[in-house]
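Whether sequence alone determines local backbone shape is best considered at the level of individual chains. Part of our work consisted of pairing the sequence of a single chain with a tokenised description of its backbone. This step matters because it turns folding into a mapping between discrete strings. For completeness, the protein is quoted in full, as a sequence line and a line of structure tokens:

_____
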Amino acid sequence: MRLRMPRPSRRPARGSLFSLCRTASRREFAAPLLEAGLRVIDLSADFRLKDAEVYRNTTAPRIPLRLLGRAVYGMPELYRKEIRAADLVASPGCYPTSRHPSPPSVAQGGLIDPGSIVITSLSAVSGAGRKAELDYSFVECNESVRAYSVPSIGISRRSSRELTAAAGQTVTVNFTPILIPINRGILTTIYARPSAESPLAASGGHE
């Protein structure tokens, strides 16, 4: 099937378009759609990072980097107002959706030590997509538990960015995805130490 890109016209288009192209696609779809006046909601990982240098280090730089600052991270719990006004929305992936907005909320409230955050996510096999690779075949996944994609640089950087903005200081997240032998679903566990100012610390609270 051949996909023809819309040509920008003098009359702006109206409406929204969901982009389901794979991450770092060989062709750039967002720019001409935005020029045509459409609102683009991108479901790939192309626009989730803000820093161009980080983007170059984590995925193939095949999109116009100028669009990174234009995109709004599509987490309504954190950016509801910004999403309403945005014409380019970067939809979060499965892991961020399973753990937000709890860490940013408690970090913003000063309840936890932002340098102590450890996130572990147990993911079903379907979370890897439909690609036919040996690592995700039945004999490799059945009755097996293993960490994968470590370090998950892109996911960790996005988590660190949201937490850094909430805490007002640099935060580095330790994130480990673990593949478990179930068909679908994600279970995320978040660990952190109470901050010195937190009521939990005064009462002897634990993680």
Summary: The domain at 97-202 is CATH 3.30.360.10 (Dihydrodipicolinate Reductase; domain 2). The CA atoms of residues 45 and 60 lie 11 Å apart. DSSP finds eight helices and eight strands in the chain. The radius of gyration is 19 Å.
